[in-house]
Amino acid sequence: EVQLQASGGGLVQAGGSLRLSCAASGFTFDDYAIAWFRQAPGKEREGVSCIRSDDGSQYYADSVKGRFTISSDNAKNTVYLQMNSLNPDDTAVYYCAYAPSARIRFRPSGWPLSRKYDYWGQGTLVTVSS
User: What are phi and psi of 52, to 5 degrees?
Assistant: First the structure.
């Protein structure tokens, strides 16, 4: 059974940094697309970033480009999201999600769509104070 465990959220001041972790199990960690999504109160869930295992392709929402970096450590079965220059608009619950790599490779433009992902972690809260 695929399981994803998101962690690393917390309270940070504007301009600060956090690193989120998504520890994965239950699938072959050389065939995945793992994405980070976030959902702020009263807003729809949005795709933040995604990484594919087959060629390391990375995708970012425009709102986080240049500030967030996604990476993976296959030895630890973990995907990270390094978040720098945080601002209050980044406040949200952050979720990681899994899809087979081929599904995102076939149509990369679909990476931000929640329906592309089969399994979800429980979420970790990020709060950025002004």
Answer: -105, 145
